Each structure stands twice: as C-alpha cells, then as structure tokens.
Amino acid sequence: MSRVMKSPRTPNPKSTTIIWNEAELRAFINHMVENVRKGLKTNSTFTKIGWENICKGLEAEFKRPFGKEQLRNKMNKLQKEYNSFRRLLETTGFGWDANARTATAEDSVWESAIQGNKDWAKYRRNGLTWWLELLEIFSDNRPMEIEGFPSLLLLFLCLLTLLMIMMIFRRWILMTVMVVATHPKYLLLPSGNLTRLLRIVGGRARQGQSRTLLRTSEIF
Predict the structure, then answer these.
(1) What are phi and psi of 96, to 5 degrees?
(2) DSSP reduced 3-state for 71
(3) How does pLDDT run along the chain (220 residues), one tens digit per residue?
(4) Which helix (H) or strand (E) holds 104?
C-alpha cells in the first residue's frame, strides 16, 4: 500500500520554525514595514493587530497557514542579522553602497573585521539585501510607535508646558499692559518712572495683589 508523503513545503502552523523561500521572506519583510508605518509596532514587537495583519497578509498571498510564533521567531532572527550588520557598518573603515546593498571597505579592513567576527564573511560576499527595510523595522529612531502614541505624547507635553508658561506670565503681562495703556499720562512718562511702574506692577501681580491699579498713581 502506497503512503502519501507530506510535502516538506507544507508548514505545520503549530511548529515554531518553518523553511522560508525568498518570495515568502520578501513578503514577510514588506508586511512588517507596512505595519511599522501604520504605527503597529512597539520597541520590541508588533501589537496584536499588527501580527494579525501580517499573518493574514501572508496567508492570503501564499494560500497556506502561518503561525504567529513562527513569525516571531523569524523576526527575531532577522533582528539578529540587523544588529550584526549594523555593528559591521559602525566599524571604522566601512561604508554603505546603496546600489549594491552591501557594505564597502578596503580589502585589509574586511580581512581585519572578519578575523574579529567570522559571521561577517557572508556580508562580504552577498551584502544584506534587506538592510534598508530592516533598518526601518528595527531602528530605535522611528518617528512613531504604537499608533503614534509617543509622538502625540511629546506634542501634548510641549503644549502643556507652553500653557503653564502662559498661565504664569499672563497676569503679569495683562496688568502691565492695562496700566501702561490706560494711564492718561503714559505717553509723557519719563523712562525712569515707566520702568519703575512696570517693576511695581509686575511684582504686585506675582503676589496676587489686585489693588495694584489703584496705587500706581503714587509713583508720580
């Protein structure tokens, strides 16, 4: 009796690892970039909605199941690649060739770097095709995080600070303007008296003395 052999390309969604082909890897990275741009990634992983979007997108494209744990494991491996290649680019003497998508350096620099880290030899041969995409996914300098929360929080804090500053100086500014603008002799005041007037009004405003306007005539 013949036995039906299960295709090695048919993954088990309960397994934590699968074999990725180039098309699947490219699609996975593209889906991650898309959800990063939607603000569905934290510093370390995607939100629940983000993972659902990625999983559904891959399943719709390749007509087979993808487990979230499989996707997380692959993401972790890609992040290790990202960290390794980033350290290589940060090494003195290395640059980035955007057209070839690879690191560039003199032969002597490559040889010295590979002696210190054998894993970098593969980058000398093949570069890292997905470097720019992985940079967008894993870089800590993204303009937005979960649904733009940090950006909105920063904007809120800036507005709150500005509001507090305005509240502190509002009373002093208003009272100063009122005194100077409404005084019948403000155009004829000597500069010394005007300066003294402003200082007294400002000081009394900060102390909460509402009777400042009534006593400013004592200056003259």
Answers:
(1) -125, 130
(2) helix
(3) 444 334 444 555 555 567 899 999 999 999 999 999 999 998 889 999 999 999 999 999 999 999 999 999 999 999 999 999 999 999 999 999 888 888 999 999 999 999 999 999 999 988 898 999 999 999 874 443 333 444 455 666 777 787 778 777 766 666 666 665 565 555 544 555 555 655 655 555 455 444 544 454 455 4
(4) strand 102-104
Neighbours of 125 (CB within 10 A): 7
Residues 6+ apart with CB under 8 A from 40: 46, 47, 49, 50, 53, 146, 147
CA distance 124 to 127: 6
Query: What backbone phi and psi angles, to 5 degrees, belong to 46?
Result: -90, 160
Any idea of the CA torsion for 154, 157, 159, 164, to the nearest 10 degrees? Answer: -160
Nearest to 93 by CA among 82, 74, 77, 107: 107
